[in-house]
Design brief:
CATH class of chain A: Alpha Beta
Distance between the termini of chain A: 36 Å
Number of strands of chain A: 5
Radius of gyration of chain A: 16 Å
Oligomer: homodimer
CATH architecture of chain A: 3-Layer(aba) Sandwich
Largest interface: A-B, 42 and 42 residues
Helix content of chain A: 25-40%
Largest sheet of chain A: 5 strands, parallel
Chain lengths: 219, 219
């Protein structure tokens, strides 16, 4: 019998999908939170729902309103970084101010309300190291904050991919049979992956390093 | 010329209204965030807007969805505490899981996006000491988390009422000409204050201790 409950932040990309399957393997009975925040690549929301269905878990899809956001992910007038290493030059234009802070806040509230023990997040420091709210030091500090700010002090933030590269993430996911063909990574908001944005670049490079074809491209 | 920008979490009650006027006096050019979270006492939203107008500041009203919330503030089937010291017996039924964590997350995102230096919150440890997300140790830890999770590490969480009693808060506010007649405290969701819930009790007691009539009751 599954007894450990968990909440997973599910975006529809490779990282959160892999995190979901890792948490499932650890015996967690999961509920997913999927966020619609007026991202241009809304296709990831359908991908997240599809992955939740494949994994046989329930989800809540929440629309959140951050009208002040000035990010290439939410404003088509701001160019997407295409130089394939945007994070190395500081915080990229795809940064959405406070996004993981907001997502995690909802997730811990949800977790507390359903008596879940853990909140899973697919954050990792490689590839997108430019995002401050993906860093271990942020996650540790946020953990400390919720320990003091919630009724249930024991809820854990779990980021199993934190120090893995995209290649290692996909290798782990393939073993766990993550349905990568249903994941969506491209930031451009088009029907097909643009192949040029950071997110497409890191995805393609990881599959190439593993010597396998991206199942998304085979659909 | 006002140059310091700030964000204020405005609920329509005495505490946040007083905090607003304190921040104004400190020279902050403020923007308010008002949240609609399906609270039964929606009248506080109109109160918050009125106070923002009186203070001459702009506001954003955000609807947020926390469908899992099991609180007497959002579910009329859960009784409001009427024993006038609910917080002394543990966390009261009016607790909304993660509410200040969510509110502050939006506020710091907003602050970062408009180059504001501070986020003001009317939290205090007296009267409602049952809420874990009003405690100084939570606010300190949240401050540490956003220092690591935001692009602008210097945004400050400011809670000027933290250790003041309701009586001291109102005394300060009267000096600053806070329009208390437009504030709203009652949790019951009725047209007139119920006079029985915790929030009515602490408000009435503070005005009584100051030997003055609550201007809300004179309207």
């Amino acid at each position: 019998m599954k007894t450990k409950k968990g909440v997973i932040l599910l975006s529809g990309g490779i990282d959160s999908a892999t995190t979901l399957y890792i948490a499932k393997q650890q015996g967690y009975h999961l509920r997913a939170l999927i966020f619609e925040y007026k991202q241009l690549h809304r296709k990831e929301i359908a991908a997240a729902k599809k992955i939740a269905c494949c994994a046989g878990i329930d989800y809540q899809c929440l629309s959140i309103n951050i009208p002040w956001s000035r990010s290439a992910l939410t404003d088509s007038r701001i160019p997407l970084p295409l130089d394939q290493a945007a994070g190395l030059h500081g915080i990229p234009s795809t940064y959405v101010s406070g996004r993981n802070i907001i997502f995690l806040s909802y997730a811990v509230s949800f977790a507390e309300s359903i008596n879940a023990k853990a909140v899973f997040i697919g954050a990792h420091i490689h590839d997108y190291s430019g995002y401050p709210d993906c860093r271990p030091e942020f996650l540790d500090a946020f953990q400390a904050a919720i320990r003091r700010g919630l009724k249930v002090a024991s809820i854990k933030i779990v980021a199993p991919l934190l120090r893995k590269s995209k290649k290692e993430i996909i290798r782990t996911g393939l073993r766990l049979k993550v349905p990568y063909k249903f994941t969506w990574s491209c930031y451009s908001g088009r029907r097909r992956p643009c192949g040029r944005c950071d997110s497409c670049y890191f995805r393609a490079r990881a599959f190439s390093e593993l010597g396998i074809k991206d199942p998304l491209c085979e659909k």
